[in-house]
Specification:
By secondary structure, the chain is α/β, with parallel strands linked by helices. 40% of the residues lie in helices and 19% in strands. The chain has two domains: 169 residues, Response regulator (Rossmann fold), CATH 3.40.50; 145 residues, 3-Layer(aba) Sandwich (Rossmann fold). The chain is elongated. The N terminus is likely disordered.
Length: 331
């Protein structure tokens, strides 16, 4: 994205806002300050999609940037040190509420504040992460929307086998530093015997480790790949997709952006919808509700997305029953 377009996008959604210089709210209205912390890049097209959904939903609820709401954004471009730095900066600026994406952002924010309300999206296990006491009654300063529960990972194994019945070995790509990786892997291992598949966990911390590990794994035929949901996978999704294609590994991914960028299959929640729902919680909290009493919500619908171009490149003929179930087929 060009610098000009990026600046236009940032200006449109308040990313460059400095609260002390913010425009005054219209007479009789109070300017409310919202902070947003994302681990992803501002230039990622998916970032623009989710932020647009978020801001549009806020507007529908009566919050207009520059009139009665001011939004301060931070994008960490995958740098965990920057996430911690930005978390401290945003909390120090005293926002009234913070939107955070993923465990990588929620953790540092809760270390920085136990009082400023936090609404999160795309967190896999908020109880296991220590962000909330329970899903029904969060009990702290954070609540929000989970990306999926662990049981969904079993569905990825099922989809892989149904799509490519010849697969007997599956590599599970995971970030060992992410606390939710064990639960996702366990769900896959529990169902793998039913699908006559051998599971090989592959722990990686960077793209370099992925290259060598997948090259070794792919030397044996009838192999496939499942990529677990993680901060690492999301940020490096294009590299993972390229490696899967290079080594001819049919792969299932946790979210649609992987398939939009050339991956074979995804099954997961709609991320833009999570941001729209988060705007609803922010509206309720700004109007006086306590985040400790707002239940954490799991997705109510998961979307199956299939990329036929990726299937053709692998020489696959996707089974009609799988295609019939797809919510979206990319051709």
């Amino acid at each position: 994205m060009s610098i000009l377009i990026r600046r236009q996008f940032i200006a449109a959604f308040g990313s460059a806002t400095i609260w002390p210089l913010a425009a005054r709210a219209q007479q009789g209205e109070r300017m409310r300050r919202i902070a947003v912390l994302l681990g992803r890049s501002a230039d990622d097209p998916e970032t623009q999609t989710v932020i647009t959904a978020f801001v549009q939903r806020l507007q529908q609820l009566g919050w207009t940037v520059g009139r009665n709401a001011q939004i301060e954004y931070r994008y960490a471009d995958g740098n965990r040190d920057l996430i911690r730095k930005y978390a401290e900066e945003l909390v120090a600026a005293a926002p009234e509420i913070i939107l955070a994406e993923g465990s990588a952002c929620v953790g540092p924010l809760q270390q920085a504040t136990r009082t400023v309300p936090i609404v999160f999206v795309s967190v896999i296990d908020p109880v296991g992460g220590g962000f909330v006491t329970s899903l029904a009654r969060p009990g702290r300063n954070a609540t929000g929307f989970t990306l999926f529960d662990y049981g969904l990972a079993a569905k990825w194994a099922e989809l892989l086998k149904q799509s490519v019945p010849s697969i007997v070995r599956v590599a599970v790509l995971r970030d060992p530093t992410q606390f939710s990786a064990g639960g996702q892997l366990g769900a896959i291992q529990a169902v793998a015997p039913f699908f006559e598949m051998e599971v090989t966990p592959i722990d990686v911390r960077n793209v370099g480790e992925m290259e060598g590990a997948l090259a070794d794994f792919a030397r044996v035929s009838n192999s496939g790949l499942i990529t677990l949901g993680s901060f690492l996978a999301t940020l490096n999704r294009r590299a993972i997709i390229a490696l899967a294609a290079k080594h001819r590994l049919p792969a299932v991914y946790p979210t649609r952006p992987f398939v939009a960028d050339g991956g074979l299959i995804s099954y997961g929640s709609n991320q833009a919808e999570q941001y729209r729902l988060a705007a609803g919680y922010i509206d309720r909290i700004l109007k006086g509700q306590n985040p400790a009493n707002l239940p954490v919500q799991n997705p109510t619908k998961y979307e199956l997305v299939i990329n036929l171009k990726a299937a053709k490149a692998l020489g696959l003929d996707m089974p009609r029953p799988v295609l019939a179930r797809a919510d979206e087929v990319i051709e």
